[in-house]
Structures are given as structure tokens and as C-alpha cells.
Amino acid sequence: MFTTYLCFCSIAVIAAESSTNTQYSQGKEKAVVCMTCHGVDGISTIDTYPNLQGQKQAYFVAALKAYKLRQRNDGLAILMHPQADSLSDQDMLDIAYYFNHVKSEPIKNDN
User: For 67, which of 26, 84, 85, 98 could close a Cys bridge (C-beta 3.0–4.6 Å)?
Assistant: First the structure.
């Protein structure tokens, strides 16, 4: 009985890891367009564009939905409106998952 329980737990853990790996991969694929302005792995090199790496998922999705609904109109929001318009709810979740979990390699200082 205990062995059966362990087997089911192992299967559940493997399935969960596979699901998160899939969401990460899909999010990375969908986030390529974001990287044009927000930088590789979500670290912006442009002062006026925020970093996305490490952003909380719920906040990220809420922000994208607010752009889509035109509830965010300040600053450079006009650039985000068409980007958000093209995203489904699942796209938003996947992209938010990716940027929440991606980690950049630290920049090496050769000095």
C-alpha cells in the first residue's frame, strides 16, 4: 500500500514538473516579442522600459489585462496596447510564468 502511494506521488511530481517545464518553454517562446523592448530575459537596457524578470505573476497578468482594457494610458502605454490586444488569457499566464521564473546569468567582470 505504501509503495503504491509513493508511486502515485512520484507520478504526480513528475507530471507537475513536466507541466511547469512546458509552461516555461511556451512562455519563453511567446515572450520573444517582449524582449525587443524589455531586454533579453526581461532585463531592460532602455531606461524608460521596466524590467520584467522576477515580476510577480498575478501583477504581471493584471497589468497586461489593464493594457488590453485601456485602463493604463499613461507614459508609453500606447505601445503596450496593441501588444496586449494580441494576447489570450493563456498567453498572459504563460508569459507571466516565464518572466517570474527566468534568471539571467550574472554579468562577468573581467577586470
Answer: 84
